[in-house]
Amino acid sequence: MGLAPAVQGDNAASLRIKPGPILLLGAPGVGKGTQAKELMARWGIPQISTGDLLRDNRDHGTALGLEAKQIMAQGKLVPDELVNQMVAERLKLPDTFDGYILDGYPRTLGQAHWLDGHIGTVPRALPVIAISIRVSYTQLLRRITGRRNCPVCGSIYNIYLQPPKVDELCDLDGTPLARRSDDTEEVLEERMRTYGLLTAPVVEHYRALGRFEEVDGEQPVNEVAAGVMAAVARLRG
Ligand code: AP5
Fold first, then answer.
1. Up-side HSE of residue 185: CA atoms within 13 Å toward CB?
2. For ligand 1, atom 12, which residue shows the shortest CA distance?
3. Pocket of ligand 1 (CB under 6 A)
4. Taking the model in full, what pTM does it have?
5. In this predicted model, what pLDDT tens digit does every residue of 170-200 receive, in sequence order?
6. pLDDT tens digits, residue range 11-34?
7. Phi-psi region of 67 (alpha: psi -120 to 50; beta: other; left: phi over 0)
8. CA-to-CA distance for 145 and 136, rounded, in angstroms?
């Protein structure tokens, strides 16, 4: 089953709010990309996934992609200057003016400080709100090793938890599904180490700023989505 928008119709009050910049934080595989697609469907604001942007650069063989390729394969982080520059370019596009969802960014305190400073320079920008999704390691392992993506439309599946109707084919366009090269148990261990060392302090940074909520990600997608929407509504209320 694909990940169609799960929460249409409920929480109607949240439709009236202006979402502004939303950060989705959390360890590899907690469901940031899945929930970003739910938020996009709700508010029509873009998902900006630094992982997707880097993979796109890698697949097109750009200078940035060539530099990022090995780093990503090892589960380490691409240098802040490169990622910040990529995000700065993306945030210039007009589809971000009413809000956007940052998925997988910021991932270091350096990136967080850059983003906070950048938003401070944008006239009438709403302050960022941050939502951190929590999931146990056992569940993350299943989510990462079972994940499949449609290379054409970007739909996310999981062979254990969110399977397509026909094995290994996208429900929406029938394209054969792909597996990410970093979705192995070995690389996940390194991604988790990197997360604990460099990204967990970012969660604490936004918790301390106060416009922050944590959501239990270990529930069905639509229940997590309802929790995320409710958190956005409270933080923007
Ligand atoms: P990135 O692509 O951002 O990977 P990640 O943070 O490790 O997160 P994932 O994309 O793996 O998981 P997700 O939380 O989006 O989960 P998803 O929704 O897909 O980064 C990759 C690499 O790029 C990094 O390692 C780094 O090298 C580099 N990079 C990226 N950003 C960077 C930055 N800012 N700075 C420096 N380097 C950077 O869901 C996972 C699975 O679970 C799916 O199969 C899905 O179907 C399933 N699932 C989701 N929710 C549920 C649910 N509620 N119930 C059951 N199954 C579910």
1. 4
2. 29
3. 26, 28-34, 49-51, 54, 71-72, 75-78, 83, 104-105, 107, 111, 143, 146-147, 156-158, 161-162, 191, 217, 220-221, 224
4. 0.92
5. 999 999 999 999 999 999 999 999 999 999 9
6. 555 667 888 999 999 999 999 999
7. alpha
8. 14
